Every structure is written in structure tokens, then in C-alpha cells.
């Protein structure tokens, strides 16, 4: 199931998009009507696809917001906007969007624009999905993962990296969130063991 965040400050349009997505695709959705709500939703939901309006009636445009989010998260983006000018499209292009849908949008336009992206995401190779997850991690977090793959305990890792035991526990918690794992202990160990030599190459 693909996680989709809808960033749209007009709630009626946001609800319409959400209803159409839920009716046509196997996905979970969440709506954010402001940059503040986006900031809360991203770490909680870790969306794989963001549908974003460009004019958010805030200091930042949707394009600027997406560019900022891309520094910390890995996701596909589809812009849904009334902007059709060449300059705006070129600005949007810099964030490598998966699609660009012009408002007003109807059921057929939305389905066509999202369907191609959803199908491509669903068919991504496992290796690419693993790489996208690892790209969310900091260098320190990747090093901790490699040590976990060597069966090092939290205290052993703390000693090797010269961090406190509690600092490593906090790092493990953040790693689990980024890798979309619920059980912070055994699930993380299972994940790194499944990656095996591939993880050591990172």
C-alpha cells in the first residue's frame, strides 16, 4: 500500500483528491493544509508520494516546500496546480516531479496522472526500494546499521563510536522510523541481517 500525502490548502479540493485516490488505488492518505501540518505529517507518515499544490497562500510556494523536504526525505511528487507558465513549470522541474497536473482537475485527469506514477512505484526493484530507505539515513546511522549487522550490542556500539548508551538508543529509534520498522529491536536486527553483504557495501 502506497502512502500518499496531499498538500492542498483548499480543503474541498483536498477531500476530492483523497476520495478519488481511495476509490481508484490501494493507498493510505493524509491531508495537510499548511506547511506546519506537512512538517508534522512527514516524520509520522513517511509518505512515498506527495501530491502538492504550488500556491499554498504562505511564504513558501509548494515548489520551495518540496525542495526543502527533499533534503531530508525520499518521495515522489506530483504537482496539482493552476499555474501553467513556462517559468513556474521550469522551477517545478528542478525538483524532479513525477508528473504535473493542471487544475481544474477532474476524475479522469487525476486518475491518469496518478496511475502512471503509482504503477511505476509499485514495480520498483527491491534493491532500489532498499537504496531509497538507506538514503534517508545519516552517515552515523548507516555506520550503526553496519555494526548491528555485525551483531554488536547497543553498549558495544556506544563504546566503538564514543557515544553514550542512550545516544545510540535514540539513533536506533530514529533509524527504525526512517526504515519504517515498528519493533525497534528484533525488527531492526532482522532487517539488517536480511540485507547481509549488501548493507556492508553501503
Automatic annotation (TrEMBL):
Biological process annotations from GO: phosphorelay signal transduction system; regulation of DNA-templated transcription
Boundaries of every Response regulatory domain copy: 3-118
Pfam families: GerE, Response_reg
Domain named HTH luxR-type: residues: 130-196
Location of 4-aspartylphosphate modifications: 53
Record-linked PROSITE patterns: HTH_LUXR_2, RESPONSE_REGULATORY
Keywords annotated in UniProt: DNA-binding, Phosphoprotein
GO molecular function annotation: DNA binding
Identification of the protein by name: DNA-binding response regulator
Species for this entry: Candidatus Pseudobacter hemicellulosilyticus
